[in-house]
Amino acid sequence: MIDSQTETNDNDAQTRAALQPHPWVELAPDRFRLLRLSPLPTDRDTGARPLRFVELAQVERHTPQQSLLKLFVRQPGQLTAKQHNVLEIWADHRAKELRFGPDSGLRVELANRGLGRFLLAQGVLWAQKRWSHYLIEGGALPVKDVTGEDARLRRDHCLLSQGFDVLYAEPQQLKATYSAPRVSALRPDWNIEKVQVIELRDAAAMLEQADRNLLEQENRIRDTHERLNKLRREDGTLRFTIACLIVFSLFQAGLLIWIATR
Question: Which of 2, 15, 32, 218 sits between 20 and 30 A of 163, alpha carbons compared?
Fold first, then answer.
């Protein structure tokens, strides 16, 4: 009976441990970079796609049993849901396996801007430097994130471009799974025409150039205002001169008429 009670307590302890979130789940980022999202033509589904700058934040942890890379995309002045714009890459060193997360799927709010491929490429690049021979743990693709046929095609194109396989279990193409044989089979590239990483030195140079451009614009505007004011003054002088000439002409005409009638 004692053994049974001990076994029950052990099972309860294991259950509680399994229900508790992983201590790395709430890690805050400690490295930051700037991303430039190039302006693109307006899309009928995702709307306008102007020039944007966003922050790429990341955190990394390692133990002998597992490793984690977590990437965040943050938009200045905007709050996003906790599970949005986040990509996790978990490496299990005991099973020699790599897993992509979160479990709810990669949900990027700035859709159709190349960020999905960029995040996957960063994760693949990080993994291939260390564990290129690890297996890939596949999974199911969330159905609720697919709002239409174009969104489904964009999602599949993103995964296929990075080297994943997308398989559908039914002809309606509703439920899909992704997989890949090994980390070495994935591609660490992305569309650099859509997303560019701006290093700190380049960002400083851009700010300095922008400040110089603003100063030049202010000087041009000031010169234009001065020319306009000068033209207004000259215009006023010309109007006064013309008015005087008209009055003088009328006076002369009246004088001539008076002389002629006398």
Answer: 32
CA dihedral 196, 114, 156, 135 (to 10 degrees): 30
Which among 159, 156, 178 is positioned nearest to 167, based on CA atoms? 178
The pTM assigned to this predicted structure is: 0.74
The alpha carbon torsion through 7, 8, 13, 19 (nearest 10 deg) reads 130
Reported as a pLDDT band with limits 50, 70 and 90, residue 120 is very high
Give pLDDT, residue 1.
47
Task: Give the residue, 174 or 48, on which the prediction is more confident.
Answer: 48
Render the burial of 167-204: b for 16+ CB within 10 Å, e for the rest.
eeeeeeeeebebebebbeebbbebeeebbeebeeeeee
Average pLDDT, the chain: 85
